Amino acid sequence: MFRFMADYKGDETTGFQSPAQDYIEGVVDLAAILDLRRPGRYPVRVKGQALAARGIRDGDILVADAAAEPRPGVVCVAMVGGDVILATLTRTGASWVLAPSSGPIITVAEDVEVWAIVQALVRTAV
Hints:
Layout: H1 30-33, E1 41-45, E2 61-65, E3 75-80, E4 83-92, E5 95-99, E6 106-107, E7 112-122
């Protein structure tokens, strides 16, 4: 003989509460972790293998910060003659230069603008 539990209420169960409930993590909020709500911080999708040597692949998402201070050795997003490029920012004497993975080194001058410094990388495919 079977008896149906028509009046079962899950919130009124007896027994002990699981001790593991204290260790349950919430939903991962990438916007909060990467601080994307901060003004001047933008996600940028990479097209091509511009900086594959630095581990940046086609389809990756970079978090670019337009308010970040430039430092030698960081990856930056720059505008060169109307084109957007990724390059490593370096210093030669008193001048800033862009070192793309291929092509000539570019001196930061009037026709070159360092738009943002890359702060993080999000890979959507492994």
